[in-house]
Write a structure and sequence with these properties.
The strands form four sheets. Strands 7, 8, 11, 12, 13 and 14 form a six-stranded mixed beta sheet that branches. A five-stranded mixed beta sheet has the order 4-3-5-15-6. The N and C termini lie far apart (56 Å). It is α/β, with parallel strands linked by helices. It folds into three domains: 81 residues, Arc Repressor Mutant, subunit A, CATH 1.10.10.10; 100 residues, Periplasmic binding protein-like II (D-Maltodextrin-Binding Protein, domain 2), CATH 3.40.190.10; 108 residues, 3-Layer(aba) Sandwich (D-Maltodextrin-Binding Protein, domain 2), CATH 3.40.190.10. The protein is 40% helix and 22% strand. Belongs to the LysR transcriptional regulatory family. It holds the Pfam family LysR_substrate. GO terms for molecular function: DNA binding; DNA-binding transcription factor activity.
């Protein structure tokens, strides 16, 4: 069996996850040139090319992909085992990397993260906010937060944040004064709707309403479709059309009167977000501490 340095294998995994030497160097305590040298040593040790390199990008070869798929879980178990042996479970240290939707990063995670980090000063949290559903391990993250309908079947999930949320419709007073106020989902086809498109799948978020077993789906077709909620809300404030969004995101505008509620009796409730991860076995200490914290704080957050 070829002999190689486990650190070199870990460097290869980091390069593969980051998509390049420079990006990987930002995540690890090593320079890009040191990572390149580590991969070269590893290729010599195993007798196979593991990375295809160009001036602009790097990509795993077929052999490299097989190697990374096999060695990544082993490296994770070694790191977790070391945490379990040398770390104090009451005082975890290390970095916790989370992948979360932009809405969660803005409206749900901040108070939870702040309280957790104050309790565990040895932990550093890195949050990657994006709306596309990704493989958290491939992105170099320990865990993610998503809504239940977008979770893979093979992950472990625990509730985080509010357990019930509402899909809220609103519009500027100027828009409703000019166009009138819809009373039923079918009335929306005569109105301008501001839409949201997911950045990853490119799918348009359909507005869905349900009552007495009847489900009505309305595509938010109108003058604006955007992947950023900030632009949608600003357009709604300006009177461009009706917006459908998480209630938390529109609360301040509804309270100030910049937006007014539309079709309140049709607002739909849905389950809150979930913290998900790949395995309970040999979890890194920061992730284990965060999962325990979220579970312990659940009654206070479940509103």
């Amino acid at each position: 069996m070829p002999e190689f340095d486990l650190n070199d294998a870990a460097h290869l995994v980091a390069v593969a996850e980051a998509g390049g030497f420079r990006a990987a160097a930002q995540r690890r305590t090593a320079s890009a040139s040191a990572l390149s040298e580590a991969v070269r040593r590893l290729e010599e040790a195993v007798g196979a090319r593991l990375l295809n390199r160009t001036t602009r990008s790097v990509a795993l070869t077929e052999a490299g992909a097989r190697f990374v798929d096999r060695v990544r879980p082993a490296l994770a178990e070694i790191a977790a085992a070391l945490d379990g042996v040398s770390g104090d479970p009451e005082r975890p240290t290390g970095t916790l990397r989370l992948n979360v939707p932009t809405f969660v990063a803005r409206h749900i995670l901040p108070p939870i993260a702040t309280a957790f980090l104050k309790r565990h000063p040895g932990v550093r949290m890195e949050v990657m906010a994006q709306d596309s559903f990704v493989d958290v391990l491939a992105e170099g993250c320990d865990a993610g937060i998503r809504y239940e309908e977008r979770l893979a079947l093979d992950v472990i999930a625990t509730p985080i944040g509010p357990r019930r949320q509402r899909f809220v419709l609103a519009a500027a007073p100027s828009y409703l004064a000019e166009r009138g106020t819809p009373a039923h989902p079918r009335d929306l086809v005569r109105h301008d709707r501001i839409g949201h498109r997911f950045t990853g799948s490119k799918a348009l978020a359909i507005w869905e309403f349900e009552r007495d077993g009847e489900v009505i789906r309305v595509p938010p077709e109108g003058p604006l479709v955007a992947s950023t909620f900030e632009m949608q809300i600003a357009a709604a404030r300006g009177g461009l059309g009706i917006i459908g969004h998480f209630g938390e995101a529109l609360a301040a505008d509804l309270a100030s009167g910049a937006l007014v509620p539309v079709m309140e009796d049709w607002w739909q409730e849905f389950s809150g977000p979930m913290l998900y991860y790949q395995s309970r076995r040999l979890m890194p200490a920061p992730l284990r501490a965060f999962v325990d914290f979220v579970k312990s704080e659940r009654p206070a957050a479940a509103d």
